[in-house]
Amino acid sequence: MTVLTIDGLSKTFDMHVLGEKQVVGLDDVSFEVDDGEFLAIVGESGSGKSSLLKCIYRTYQPTAGRVVYHDTGGDVDLAACPERDIIALRDDAIGYTSQFLDEIPRVPAVDVVARPLCEQGVPNDEARTTAESLLSRLHLPEELWDAYPATFSGGERQRINLAQAIAPKPRLLLLDEPTSALDPETRAAAIDLLQEYLEDGTTVIGVFHNRDVIEAVADRVVVLADGRVRQVVPIEEYNGEVFA
Ligand SMILES: Nc1ncnc2c1ncn2[C@@H]1O[C@H](COP(=O)(O)OP(=O)(O)OP(=O)(O)O)[C@@H](O)[C@H]1O
After folding, report:
1. How many angstroms separate the CA atoms of 186 and 184, rounded?
2. What is the pTM of this model?
3. Ligand 1 atom 7: residue of nearest CA
4. Cross-referenced InterPro entries, in alphabetical order (predicted)?
5. Rounded to 5, what percent of the chain is helix, strand, coil?
6. Protein residue closest via CA to atom 12 of ligand 1
7. Whether the predicted pLDDT of 7 surpasses 80
8. Taking the CB of residue 224, how many other CB atoms lie within 10 A of it?
């Protein structure tokens, strides 16, 4: 079954400060994503990887094209549906994490991770137990669980970010360089965790700058260049360009 159909997706940015100049983020991007697959997005810096994830999550409003999420209850065009539908899907079905943690002042790390579960109605104790288990799996030292992430290092924040995105077990997980600041051991722990989620049926679209991560988990690779799809290939046929 297909989870997502991206069809003719384009995003241009109007740069008012540059005298109405337009910057192309994505240009006529089309591909499909199957249920339970891990799709890696690769490309040079500025090729449109983050813009693609943001258009799917609707942080960016696409300029043209469709992003059809195939829900059990019917198809939803994420590029055009009302904001309330997007918010409901984010609560329930689509997770996103970027390299940067959205600061929530004075909320301990464990509660930042537990929060999406509590919002789904999971009792607080149970949500905290799940959060602690994820933080432990991602090697966050226990003395930091009750500390505020505002003071954390980049790699520590990244672990909170990843744990928070995966805690509710979304059907579709969008990951924008979630392991870039992690040491190799913690990165390996994150890969193990993602592999378990994949086995449970989660679909992942991820941007990774480490070839080893892609080779460990990806089923297919989408190569972007200048906002366009250069190729979509099974991992066995991916020649590692971009990482050479
Ligand atoms: N909010 C924005 N306003 C204006 N231009 C933007 C915006 N976001 C992205 N762009 C432009 O769109 C193009 C694609 O950017 P994007 O961040 O998607 O690339 P990327 O492949 O994720 O790059 P990197 O690997 O460096 O993170 C770039 O030219 C970028 O300058």
Report:
1. 6
2. 0.93
3. 13
4. AAA+_ATPase, ABC_transporter-like_ATP-bd, ABC_transporter-like_CS, ABC_transpr_LolD-like, P-loop_NTPase
5. 40, 30, 30
6. 25
7. yes
8. 24
